Amino acid sequence: GATRVSHSNHFRSSFFLAVRKKKTRSELGSDRGKFEARKMALAFDEFGRPFIILREQDQKTRLRGIDAQKANIAAGKAVARILRSSLGPKGMDKMLQGPDGDVTITNDGATILEQMDVDNQIAKLMVELSRSQDYEIGDGTTGVVVMAGALLEQAERQLDRGIHPIRVAEGYEMASRVAVEHLERISQKFEFDVNNFEPLVQTCMTTLSSKIVNRCKRSLAEIAVKAVLAVADLERRDVNLDLIKIEGKVGGNLEDTELIYGILVDKDMSHPQMPKQIEDAHIAILTCPFEPPKPKTKHKVDIDTVEKFETLRKQEQQYFDEMVQKCKDVGATLVICQWGFDDEANHLLMHRNLPAVRWVGGVELELIAIATGGRIVPRFQELTPGKLGKAGMVREKSFGTTKERMLYIEHCANSKAVTIFIRGGTCILFILHLLINNSFLGYGLGNKMMIEETKRSIHDALCVARNLIRNKSIVYGGGAAEIACSLAVDAAADKYPGVEQYAIRAFAEALDSVPMALAENSGLQPIETLSAVKSQQLKENIPFYGIDCNDVGTNDMREQNVFETLIGKQQQILLATQVVKMILKIDDVISNSEY
């Protein structure tokens, strides 16, 4: 019969091309020998007709069915295992070295996974999971990956029992709904306002207790809450975190971290004899330099007499004079310029008692303009009193024995913008902390790693405070919420008659992995501790009992003031369930061979 070969570009570009033809048995035998000689695979379709897989087939690997699911589950569990030891207040830190030698030390789940070089596609899904939690909630990035890993582990057991992956995925979906509804029931509303923000501080302290900065968690939590309340719109229940700028400088102690109601600029006054503090400042924000105008064309000036030189010098002096006078005339008491000054201009500004700051970056210039209500002026001719920014106080501050100085622009007219200024770093003890967690014995040398980790910790605290302003409901931490949900899900499993009830019970077991990891990381007997707390919750029907990680002597999380936001915990369960469902539904993996 006639041969039909598909020449479409679609099939050419794909990794296989099928050629079908009716042949006799002898022809098939001779053809098979040719194909084997060319190292090509011969396959048959459902009607027994042969087709040839051509393009780069020997360079592909393929996993199908249960093998694919097991391989995917193993990849997900491997990532979760890395983060499991970082969970909770006693969690260990990870040290990650970048390609250019940068070292990051952190126990923030999202940061660890961002910095890791992950090849496996399923492992990348876990990285995305952590990133989603970070973008949406800002906290709980480690917990969500640990939860997903536990769900995958339980799913593997269900697959070994012969339960279909789709039934497992459906059972997980039902269980997650039960867990989220139960969280809603056991949650409590916290009332707070601008004057009474203690509940917000307690919740932020829970977040910071698992970080390296936990020795200063009270002061840092207060700073985070005050910063969020300063920029929050409480009527609309909305917070714009872009208005909170986080700056850091190596040196000093972590206790020196402060909240500035204004903008911080890493510059100093252009002349050492200029005043260091200006009250009720009127700020001219310029993007034009204090220099004589330069012609656009090529030019050459011939000076052959002293008179000509004097004339040129006087002309330049007049230019500077007019520039400085223009700033004085409009009522400016401080000049902030994007470009540099000529020495003569600087000298003249000092003599005219007009303080100035030079080489301020474009982004900072915009922030200053927004905060002070001023306008950025590109030419001296356009400078008017209406374009000046206003600030209650501008002061220069120097640090320690170093000559480093920074400019504080406070009590700004227009904006709610605030800056959190982080100091500190304990180099020797930072390493000690890695070895013996939470034991700070003194102070060492300032370093940048500590500043970066403090920035990440404060970002988490800011996100938690923002979430509480959006939704005032909280649940209790220390694994209390997970244990309560586990009991509720286990009880609900009996209501489902199908195979799904096995998956629902597996979900309940997976929820126990979080309190078990907390107990394990705190050096407690995990199974014994979890059983005791679980029986206590069941006996007294109180969902506030959790793991006593800090060895306070009570399992009641209300007494320990360990809170978490309701939306954060719900998001953890929903996100972990969605990712696990996605992984379970993959039954065929075609990838490039490693060899």
Structure, explained:
This protein is an alpha+beta fold and 595 residues long. It has 20 helices and 23 strands. The strands form eight sheets. Strands 13, 14, 15, 16, 17, 18 and 19 form a seven-stranded mixed sheet that branches. A three-stranded antiparallel sheet has the order 8-21-22. The longest helix has 24 residues, at 306-329. The model is unreliable at 1-26, 32-40, 427-432 and 434-446 (pLDDT under 50).
Record keyword descriptors for this entry.
alpha+beta, nucleotide-binding, cytoplasm, 47% helix, chaperone, 23 strands, 17% strand, 595 residues, GROEL-like_equatorial_sf, 7-stranded mixed beta sheet, 3-stranded antiparallel beta sheet, T-complex protein 1 subunit epsilon, single chain
β content, as a range?
Answer: 15-25%
Rounded mean pLDDT is 81
The poorly predicted ranges are 1-26, 32-40, 427-432, 434-446
Give the termini separation. 40 Å
**Biggest pleated-sheet summary:** 7 strands, mixed
Radius of gyration using CA atoms only: 33 Å
Provide a compact summary of the structure.
The chain is an alpha+beta fold and 595 residues long. It has 20 helices and 23 strands. The chain starts with a strand and ends with a strand.
